[in-house]
What we know:
Catalytic activity: a uridine in RNA = a pseudouridine in RNA
Function: Responsible for synthesis of pseudouridine from uracil.
Shape: elongated
Family: Belongs to the pseudouridine synthase RluA family.
Pfam families: PseudoU_synth_2
Oligomer: single chain
Radius of gyration: 23 Å
Structural class: alpha+beta
CATH superfamily of the largest domain: Pseudouridine synthase
CATH architecture of the largest domain: 2-Layer Sandwich
Order of helices and strands: EHHEEHEEHEEHEEEEEHEEH
Enzyme class: isomerase
Amino acid sequence: MKEIIINSNDKDQRLDRFMGKYLQNAKKSLIMKSIRKKNITVNNKKSAPEYILKENDRVEIYFSDETIEKFTKIKNHVKRDFPDIIYEDENIALVKKPRGLLTHNDKKDYEKNALDMFVSYMIHKGEYVPRVEKSFRPSFCNRLDRNTSGILIGCKNAQALREINDAIKRREIEKHYMALVDGSIDEEIHDISYLEKDREKNKVSLNERGDGKEIETIIRPMEKLGEYTLVDINLITGRTHQIRATLKKYNRSIVGDLKYKGRRSFGLNSQFLHNYKIIFGGLKNLDYLNGKEFTLEMEDELNDILKELRKEK
Length: 313
């Protein structure tokens, strides 16, 4: 039998979800059956799977030591390859993600990714000890496509993760992208549409009928560069391919975005898109971050394209 005392990183989650994280190699059906059969209890009492754990609750697991070890054994993909940190405090770290790097690992085949690099960094600093934590793992609150560079918000504890995720859901944290777009955009575009996904083609389309998920995007021109426009894109919502589909609606596309009919690529093997600014807001326990703005310079390859276009003006 093993007893777990719930700490501040583990509280405020359902019993079944906590157990799924702790016994990460066990099937969900086994966990549900064990709760039902009282092989997993809380404070020595039978509990429902949906019971919300409180700090200092005692979770008892009536498995053999060998079984618990088998179900909790961590697959070690973490390498000593640390990310570049833009800003850091005791609750969060803002991580630089270059183009070509995954945010999270594809579960089918392991590949180098920003999250494992961040976890490795936390372990190296002694701020995350996997054998001590029951269910929490340092995580990102946002995701960037493989070929998009920018800022990832990494959370070091469960409270920060919950609070920032909630602020993002309430649309109180601003995420700004910089993109080079074909053609002219002369004034601000504030678009509200509905997004539908074609899973076979891995593309999305927009409509104004109310079919699909609502998306909101603000596009502001920053600089006219011949037949191109450098724009600031504020993602009020954050859906897959939202930026690319919104630009297509206005007969515009990101340079190098072949999937959505982008034109000249300047030798790029991906679209000219960079998440360059995060502005925090709506935070309570992390209120010291409210109003703070963090920016990240784009990579040299993208900057060089802008320099060439400015010469041609």
